[in-house]
Amino acid sequence: MLIRFLKSFPSISYKLFLLIVFLLTPFVAFSAGEKIDYPKQKWSFSGITGTFDRASQQRGLQVYKEVCSGCHGLRLLAYRNLKAIGYNDDEIKAFASENNVNTINDEGEIVERPARPSDRFVSPYPNDKAARAANGGAYPPDLSLIVKARPDGANYLHALLTGYVDAPAEKKVPDGMYYNKYYSGNLIGMPQPLYDDGVEYADGTKATPEQMAKDVTAFLAWASEPEMEDRKRLGISVILFLLLLTLLSYFAMKQIWAPIKNK
Amino acid sequence: MSTKSNSQSSKNEGKRDFLIVSTYAMAGIGAASVAWPLIDQMNPAADTLALASTEVDLSSLEEGQSITVTWRGKPVFVRHRTPEEIKLAKEVSLDDMRHPETDEERVANEKFIVLVGVCTHLGCVPLGQKSGDVKGQYGGWFCPCHGSHYDHSGRIRKGPAPTNLEVPSYEFLSDNIIKIG
Amino acid sequence: MSKSKFKNPVVKWIDHRLPVFSFMDHELNHYPTPKNLNYFWNFGSLAGFALVTMIVTGIVLSMNYTAHVDYAFDSVERIMRDVNHGWLIRYIHMNGASFFFIVVYIHIFRGLYYGSYKAPRELLWILGVLILLLMMATAFMGYVLPWGQMSFWGATVITNLFSAIPVVGESIVTWLWGGFSVDNSTLNRFFSLHFVLPFVIVGVVILHLVALHRFGSNNPIGIDVKGTQDTIPFSPYYTIKDLFGLSVFLSLFAAAVFFFPNFMGHPDNYIEANPMVTPAHIVPEWYFLPFYAILRAIPDKLGGVLFMFGAIAVLFVLPWLDRSPVRSSQFRPIFKIFFWILLLDCILLGYLGAMPAEGIYVTLSRIATAYYFFHFLVLFPLLPYIEKTKPLPISISEPVLSGGSTASAFAAREKK
Q1: Rounded to an integer, what distance in angstroms lies between the CA atom of residue C22 and that of residue C19?
Q2: CATH superfamily for domain C31-282
Q3: B170 and B82 in one domain?
């Protein structure tokens, strides 16, 4: 059966060509976009079976909390979501309660209460304008979707965080701006965030800027796509099911059609 | 399946039908399993479930006072009962009650009675939480919609309501903090 | 009508009063179909499947979506993060749009290659082009709903096309927006229309099928069915073939949904809409790129819009532009070559639509646009006078060639 299928190949080859050309159309259209060249990192979460590295994510959360969260929000993530990266209910409750959220009391006054696991991550600024004003006009973007919202997001983020170098002599860097070799236009409003031992990891990992960049990227990649592990896992079983169905329906088709084809 | 009318040889018919039937059966299984995500999306989402339990601090609730908290979109009544009220709730005879339950069955700590503040008749919110409210003939709560009277334990004593006010599942996390749900 | 068609007494009782079962039996089961259809005839049913998938997932998404500028973006993210299986449903809907267009574009090019638009199937074709137009409108408005940067700026750019209309253009754009920029009113009406247009598509699809079943499917040879020896009942032959095609399609679709869900999207749409900042490169979804390239190829605002809509308008009159009586390209050696050139031209236009409108890309866009219209407006009407077609077979079941070239067939039709 299979051999007959392969033998019939030449006769359908031009049709296959047509099909392939069509299927390639969107690919052509997309590769036509902006060319980006960030150093490719090895990520545990890339590939169709890739999963997140829990330890790295947890270190990344620490980097986010101690370094990034001064300026950048993470408003789409809730504290309860941290369960997915290996924290238990009590740890999450304690982590959440370090932040305060506004609420209205029975007298109608706005008061603060400690955040609960059901609350979303508290942003460092009350609104966009305050964020802009506090950062010399540059808006520190919310990081909830940052890895999905940039082309080649994970590599970009890692490159950007480790891309602070001395500006070339001919490049003028104005006050309040910093030189970064991977930022478009090279002038960025964010000062270099990661330095050696900028945080102290509980698990004893050496906190080099390289390590911290990898960890915080792993954490933010998860924040962007918290469904990723479920998605890939379900995907593999769905595809296996469909391939089996394809095979079955192919042979069923051949059998049903046999009297017509053999005439 | 009408393959028979077209098949010329009947030797392999059993085998053939098996292949074809299992193909369609598998397609059917596939279609059926797609239905589940579409149905399940209407169940409470993760953020809704995260709000399914509420913690209440009772330390500032003085004897004789009540507070109303929101839990799963419904009012929950918490009353700090006086010794007198506790005594009344405990000593009353269950014989002529519509829905006989002892007070002990309905409280975790006899000082505090915790109730879902929704009348079991047709879903109105009974009066009795505020000091000036009508509390009904039995001193507990009174539903103004159709006149159901509840006692200090939230039990139905008079009026159309069929059952006692519901006690939500809750636990004392410490002496003064309860977690509802 | 035979009385013993259905054995089940309930079915029989209903069918006697409301002959839905007879109708289905006739149109889906016994429906005589040419026996020589190739795999390209799978794409019609695939398109139908895609439409149903989009409607079902769309209805479900609308249960969780909030059409308000302040909440739209977050409500979509809530679907992705909190709603049970929400990510799956949304990714199916998002990638489903792309796959729907892939399938429909193949379906259209199949029609072009095998001359499926020719008499007596002109209305069938025109209804199909109408479906394409409705799909484009629906897809465009759907892309606005997540309220990301591309949503917002795509909506701004495309609605601004109407400002090219002389005199009333500005008023039309204001009317479309319901304000002085793309804003909450725009989002609300787009949501409403995005919800209702798919059901209009369903209506046109039903007409498309009625028109199809009037004369039956065209076939790769392109000659009419001569009798029952040329046809086979739709079921089980084409039901099983469609199931096989569907399995292959779903395998590819699942690969996209589960492993590359954002490949055909744009990263900027994960940034919430900001009316103060335009992204560096705004591009429409890939399925609009060829039309976008035509729009930008014309150095005049109104001209660009006219040519862009003209690119679809020519499809409506195609049955009368093509003067050849021979349907299938298999028997038209020169036309066949040009068919491939047209296909490559459209892919080139798609590529150019994604490139910045500068330098060589502009020149290439103009050449490709010129070829597109040359193909439809010059080649289709004039080629039959030059081309010597190959002899046609006598019938589908007898691949014996009729004598003489079909230049005579052309003459024969002219006489009619």
Answers
A1: 5
A2: Cytochrome Bc1 Complex; Chain C (1.20.810.10)
A3: yes
Radius of gyration of chain B, Cα coordinates, nearest whole angstrom:
28
What's the domain count of chain B? Answer: 2
For A94-120, b where at least 16 C-beta lie within 10 A, e where not — what string? ebbeebeeeeeeeeeeeeeeebbbbbb
Q: In chain B, what residues touch A260 (CB-CB under 8 Å)?
A: 6
- DSSP letter at A191 equals P
From B38's Cα to the closest Cα of chain C, the distance in A is 7
Q: What is the pLDDT of residue C317?
A: 96
**Are both B29 and B102 inside the same structural domain?**
no
**Cβ(C284)–Cβ(C144) under 8 Å?**
no
Cis amide prior to C236 (ω within 30 degrees): yes
CA-to-CA distance for A255 and A231, rounded, in angstroms?
36
CB-based contact, A33 to chain C, within 8 Å: yes
Instruction: Write down the mean pLDDT value for chain C.
Output: 92
A12-44 residue pLDDT tens: 555 566 666 666 655 555 554 455 689 999 999
Tokens read off for C83: 């709603």
What is the pLDDT averaged over residues A59-85?
A: 96
| C236 min Cα distance to partner chain B (Å) | 7
Structural domain of B94: 49-180
Q: What is the pLDDT of residue C4?
A: 56
d(CA C330, nearest CA chain B) in Å: 30
pLDDT digits (tens, 9 = 90+) for A142-188: 999 999 999 999 999 999 999 999 999 888 888 889 999 999 888 99
The pLDDT tens digits of the residues spanning A183-215 come to 988 899 999 999 999 999 999 999 999 999 999
Looking at the structure, do residues B14 and B81 belong to the same domain, yes or no? no
DSSP calls for C175-202: HHHTSSSS-HHHHHHHHHHHHHHHHHHH
Which residues of chain C are within 8 Å of residue B42 when distances are taken between CB atoms?
63
Report how far apart the first and last C-alpha atoms of chain B are (Å, whole number). Answer: 54
> Does one domain contain both B36 and B55?
no
Q: In CATH, what number is assigned to the domain containing residue B128?
A: 2.102.10.10
What ipTM was predicted for this assembly?
A: 0.89
Q: Is C58 on the interface with A (CB under 8 A)?
A: no
Closest CA to C34 of C236, C230, C328: C230
B60 with B133, same domain: the answer is: yes
Positions in chain C short of pLDDT 50: 1-2, 403-416
The residue ranges of every structural domain in chain C are: 1-26, 31-282, 297-416
Please give the class, per CATH, of domain A54-76+138-228: mainly alpha
Residue labelled with tokens 């195609």: C318
CB-closest option in B2, B24, B45 to C84: B45
Inter-chain residue contact A32 with C351, CB threshold 8 Å: yes
Share of chain A above pLDDT 70, in %: 86
